[in-house]
């Protein structure tokens, strides 16, 4: 029996959640009913929505759904941490942290359940196919950032106008490189697959930052504890892009990033 838990965070994204849940259901059914996998899949939903709250359907046929109606915006990993304090990831073989503006490929759970991995693997980074950019967004960070690079990024976020200029110039000219499967520094934060070994070594999520740099936080914990981060594009996720973070205005977006990079530099560099 393979046990998988998914911790996802909803913030004013009910329409995306209504697509995300059925994709998990379909992937679970494909693994269990069509291919005979012995699985237990629990889906935990942190509802950080503060106003115009909507009901969330918890009647899953192939998965067990539990809603945490916080109705306070704790941020991405803040909501995940509160769920993990109630439902421990140590009781599962895999713990997935996910946004809701994406969907699972039909065979995603089957391929995860059948995965053979080294005992020192802490994080599996799947293919996250961007429908907007027509590319795989993983691996997010193939190699560890230098302190100088993080300091430069921090500087661009300190001045919102500089960040806007960076997006319109350097980012647009950036080449997207395809990577081979195997070890990387960090995967993309929108869909994170952590192994039981990660939590045995690193403990539950405890990231005191509202948003951003979650990948570096996890990558550093894996690096410090000698755990591998493995890019595996055979497991496919489809990303429909920034439902929650896309609503943040540029000034707040830069402030959140500036605070996150400041914490990363102070804690790990």
Helix content: 25-40%
Structural class assignment: alpha/beta
Strand share of the residues?
A: 15-25%
User: Would you list the SSEs in sequence order as H and E?
Assistant: EHEEHEEHEEHHHEEHHEH
Count helical runs: 9
Number of domains: 1
The CATH class, by name, is Alpha Beta
Count of β-strands: 10
Summarize the main sheet. 10 strands, mixed
Secondary-structure arrangement, i.e. CATH architecture: Alpha-Beta Complex
On the 0 to 100 scale, the average pLDDT is 92
CATH topology (fold) name: Spore Coat Polysaccharide Biosynthesis Protein SpsA, Chain A
End-to-end CA span: 40 Å
Roughly how many Å is the radius of gyration?
18 Å
Poorly predicted segments: none
Shape: globular
Please describe what this structure looks like.
It contains nine helices and ten strands. By secondary structure, the chain is α/β, with parallel strands linked by helices. It has one domain: Alpha-Beta Complex (Spore Coat Polysaccharide Biosynthesis Protein SpsA, Chain A), CATH 3.90.550. The longest helix is centred in the N-terminal third of the chain and has 21 residues, at 14-34.
What's this, in brief?
With 269 residues, the protein is α/β, with parallel strands linked by helices.
């Amino acid at each position: 029996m393979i046990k998988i838990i998914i911790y996802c965070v909803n913030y004013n994204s009910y329409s995306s959640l209504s697509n995300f849940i059925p994709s998990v259901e379909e992937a679970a059914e494909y693994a269990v009913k069509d291919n005979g996998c012995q699985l237990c899949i629990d889906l935990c939903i942190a509802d950080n929505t503060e106003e115009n709250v909507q009901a969330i359907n918890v009647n899953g046929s192939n998965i067990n759904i539990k809603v945490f109606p916080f109705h306070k915006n704790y941020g991405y990993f803040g909501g995940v941490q509160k769920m993990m304090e109630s439902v421990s990831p140590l009781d599962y073989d895999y713990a997935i942290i996910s946004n809701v503006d994406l969907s699972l490929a039909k065979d995603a759970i089957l391929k995860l359940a059948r995965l053979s991995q080294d005992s020192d693997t802490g994080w599996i980074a799947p293919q996250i196919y961007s429908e907007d950019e027509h590319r795989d967004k993983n691996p997010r960070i193939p190699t560890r950032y230098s302190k100088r690079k993080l300091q430069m990024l921090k500087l661009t976020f300190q001045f919102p106008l500089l960040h806007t200029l960076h997006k319109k110039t350097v980012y647009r000219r950036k080449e997207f490189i395809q990577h081979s499967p195997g070890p990387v520094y960090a995967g993309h934060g929108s869909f994170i697959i952590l192994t039981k070994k990660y939590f045995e070594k690193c403990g539950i999520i405890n990231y005191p930052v509202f948003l951003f740099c979650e990948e570096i936080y996890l990558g550093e914990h894996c690096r410090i504890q000698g755990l591998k981060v493995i890019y595996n594009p055979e497991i496919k996720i489809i990303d429909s892009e920034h439902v929650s973070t896309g609503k943040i205005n540029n000034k707040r977006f830069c402030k959140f990033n500036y605070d996150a990079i400041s914490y990363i530099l102070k804690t790990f560099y």
